[in-house]
Amino acid sequence: MLYVVGMGAGSRSGMTIAAEQAILGSELIVGYTKYTELLRTLFPDKEYASTGMRQERERVELALKAAESRTVSLVCSGDPQLYGMAGLAYELSVNYPAAEIEVIPGVTAAFSGGALLGSPLTTDFAVISLSDLLTPAEKIRKRLQCAAECDMAIVLYNPSSKSRADYLQRACDIVLEHRSGDTVCGYVRNIGRDGQESRVLTLAELRETAVDMFTTVYIGNSDTKLINGKMVTPRGYRDV
Questions:
Q1: Backbone angles phi, psi at 201, to 5 degrees
Q2: Are strands 153-157 and 184-189 parallel, antiparallel or unpaired?
Q3: Which of 44, 124, 125, 203 is the most exposed place for a label (fewest CB within 10 A)?
Q4: What is the pTM of this model?
Q5: Is 237 a member of any domain?
Q6: Residue 7's closest CA among 130, 127, 134, 103?
């Protein structure tokens, strides 16, 4: 059995009961190095195997091969379907017919971070990764443009890195073609972990803000408001 587990932000309090049960019931835990290090502090008696960044295929194949004879958890941050390993596990499973797969959902950063900021995602929104390692930059630009044009709130994953220092600034420039610089925005860094930091700010201020790959960014729609210091996107209940 291979459980593809969404572990949430990494703290035990943010992990679902189903995720914890899958990990406790597994003989081997496989994951990205940073995630297995986090889990070692929570489940020290488990056996672990890990691979580094950009070794996703090797990681999944390791887990599938082991799952043909053992119970294995392949762990992902947040939810395993959203930029996680669930899809790849199914794609590669044709080569490992003895491995049964079950996906265990988790709380993705969009929601755990949004809760810290207030309620920025009360109505329709788009989740877009700014990483162009697997998605062409032009396709990312088009998705940003469409989401901004149709006035959806936007959540940005992987907003910056050492090699992509200006990607958030570029994304803000695209959104500013359709929204005011006063649009309420926010970001959360290290959600549920040591060094957690959050801030509500305007779109113009966000454009000039330095972030990293552990930051989740929120851009409000035209109705998003600042209420008692919190970022809130009304759904319209008060107008009914």
A1: -155, 175
A2: unpaired
A3: 44
A4: 0.94
A5: no
A6: 103
